[in-house]
Amino acid sequence: MEYSKVITIICLIFVGDSRGQAADFQTFPDGFLIGAASASYQIEGAWNVSGKGESVWDYAFHNMLKQVSDDSNGDIACDSYHKYKEDVQWIRDIGFDHYRLSLSWPRILPNGSKDRVNLDGIRYYRNLLEELKAANVTTVVSLYHWDHPEVLEEIGGWTNEVMVERFEDYAKVVFDNLGYLVDIFVTINEPEMLCFDEPVNSSEATARGLANDVASYLCVHNALKAHAKVWHMYDENYRATQGGIIGLLPVCRGWVSGDGVTEESIERYFQFGCGLVLHPIYKGDYSEIVKTTLADIDVYRNRSFSSLPVFTDEWVKMIKGTNDYFGLNHYTSRIPVMEYGARTSDSGVLEIRDKSWPITVLDRLEVVPEGFGNLLRKIRDEYDNPPVYILENGFADSGEILDYGRINYHYDYLSELLTAIIHDGCNVKAYTIWSLLDNFEWDRGYSISFGIVKVDFTSPNRTRSEKLSTRWWKEVIRTRTLIKPPAPGSTSSWGGCFECDLTNDKS
Ligand SMILES: *[C@@H]1O[C@H](CO)[C@@H](O)[C@H](O)[C@H]1NC(C)=O
Ligand SMILES: *[C@@H]1O[C@H](CO)[C@@H](O)[C@H](O)[C@H]1NC(C)=O
Ligand SMILES: *[C@@H]1O[C@H](CO)[C@@H](O)[C@H](O)[C@H]1NC(C)=O
Ligand SMILES: *[C@@H]1O[C@H](CO)[C@@H](O)[C@H](O)[C@H]1NC(C)=O
Ligand SMILES: *[C@@H]1O[C@H](CO)[C@@H](O)[C@H](O)[C@H]1NC(C)=O
Ligand SMILES: *[C@@H]1O[C@H](CO)[C@@H](O)[C@H](O)[C@H]1NC(C)=O
């Protein structure tokens, strides 16, 4: 987007408005992409068809290693393996510019070895991607969204450096067979969630959990190496012919100010948060604040080795510069304050939640749009204003059809985003809703919903249907403007009948 256009939009929209409280609608910049996201284990089902191998999740759930609040699993999920054409029809009807999906590693390499490629897996993804291309939908493909082959978990998963090589093998098979259909690649989704999930039966991301902090830092270390190797492979051998872009996808929390928040507390919170994986990519190596803090903790714990593995100079160089774009998942914020006395976190920062923040059914995800804006401005300043692709942002509820909470969430977060672009010059290129469909939400099973399309999990058909947010998004995308959420029971400001044929009875 050229700068002159930005200036024009500022003048049109912000005359007489204070920051963050724009007019009734705001216009998205030219070329801004709006899309929706999903992930293989959460939607595909078909866990054991046509040569697919067992994933770490299949094994954990079938062997009762992990608890789900409604005792469900992803064996069938949304059955998108069989219903992908219908999914693409929804994407097309709503009008999304792009769709983000992930590939199931064991559907492609059942045993994690490149010597056995499962052709049915390749066929499935080729059909899906071709269907999207035929609908002019930009394709965003995550190589890895937490579901690796179980056989690799049995040798230690991401704590074993062998994963780096296995991930390269897998990526090569994907680039060779599917790369020509992919516009934007994500290497690894949310390495922080993957590596710092609490052990056993915890929130999400890991089927088995990691033993302790040493395992967590090893996991991050190997994930960064795997990402960098695959970025270089794409850059050297595929980019010229396939023309895509590729990057890592961290999840970053935002923050807001409050009592006890200092420059240092924000910096520690950020560098120990998504900065942990971003510093090596944008600046080279882990940040000084992370290295020195963890070294101090090692001394305090009488550890004779470093909890944070050390990159050789060669690896520092290999990892630096391996993001074609700044991918960002974001949901919520905290108030970071320095810890005094006994330390409970590696960062030395307490992450406070304000009781006045609106909560959601997922208790760690309070609604704090202001923190999103602070985060976007920090990314602008810290990493030299890279092109930012928001690849997840969304709201959990109990599956209401009249999902005003979801519409309000997207409206408030998008208002912050547009302010960051238009007022603050942040270079944000895309926004992606988590999620297209209600789906299998890890430890919460099907008991909570993120989808803007409803899925009936009691029907063998996994019937999809509209929610109120489906209609709102259609109108936002059609008009390329951020439309104010309607009040419950009202007719829409654009003259349509907003709630027609929709009631909460169906939920
Ligand atoms: C696949 O798993 C289902 C249970 O989810 C089972 O009923 C079915 O027999 C299995 N199919 C094969 C081919 O193993
Ligand atoms: C994976 O390898 C194991 C052991 O070699 C074998 O028993 C199993 O059938 C293989 N699974 C698949 C899906 O190929
Ligand atoms: C985790 O969940 C499983 C299955 O419900 C249960 O058997 C196990 O005891 C739990 N482990 C812990 C540490 O809570
Ligand atoms: C896709 O875009 C091409 C070129 O702009 C256009 O000719 C075609 O009709 C579009 N197809 C669909 C399904 O929108
Ligand atoms: C470290 O070692 C010292 C000396 O043996 C001991 O007093 C201290 O409690 C140890 N610290 C921890 C955290 O174990
Ligand atoms: C499932 O879908 C089929 C074909 O669309 C339809 O005939 C059938 O009635 C549906 N069944 C249920 C339970 O919704």
Question: What does this molecule look like?
Answer:
- This protein is α/β, with parallel strands linked by helices and 507 residues long.
- The chain has two domains: 1-28, no CATH class; 31-479, Glycosidases (TIM Barrel, Alpha-Beta Barrel).
- It is built from 18 helices and 15 strands.
- The protein has helices at 3-14, 40-43, 56-62, 80-94, 105-108, 119-134, 150-153, 162-178, 191-196, 213-237, 239-242, 263-272, 275-282, 288-300, 313-319, 369-382, 404-422, 468-479; strands spanning 25-27, 33-37, 98-102, 138-144, 184-189, 245-249, 254-255, 326-329, 333-338, 349-352, 388-392, 428-434, 453-455, 464-466, 481-483.
- The protein has an eight-stranded parallel beta sheet with strand order 6-5-4-3-2-12-11-8. Strands 7-9-10 form a three-stranded mixed beta sheet. Strands 1-15 form a two-stranded antiparallel ribbon.
- The chain is globular and about 65 Å long.
- The relative contact order is 0.13.
- Mean pLDDT is 91; it is low at 1-24.
- The structure holds 2-acetamido-2-deoxy-beta-D-glucopyranose (NAG) (6 copies).
- One 2-acetamido-2-deoxy-beta-D-glucopyranose binds at residues 135-136.
How do the strands and helices of this protein lay out in sequence?
Blueprint: H1 3-14, E1 25-27, E2 33-37, H2 40-43, H3 56-62, H4 80-94, E3 98-102, H5 105-108, H6 119-134, E4 138-144, H7 150-153, H8 162-178, E5 184-189, H9 191-196, H10 213-237, H11 239-242, E6 245-249, E7 254-255, H12 263-272, H13 275-282, H14 288-300, H15 313-319, E8 326-329, E9 333-338, E10 349-352, H16 369-382, E11 388-392, H17 404-422, E12 428-434, E13 453-455, E14 464-466, H18 468-479, E15 481-483
Parallel strand pairs: 2-3, 2-12, 3-4, 4-5, 5-6, 7-9, 8-11, 11-12
Antiparallel strand pairs: 1-15, 9-10, 13-14
Helix pairs in contact: 4-6, 8-10, 16-17
Residues 53, 110-111 line the site of one 2-acetamido-2-deoxy-beta-D-glucopyranose (NAG).
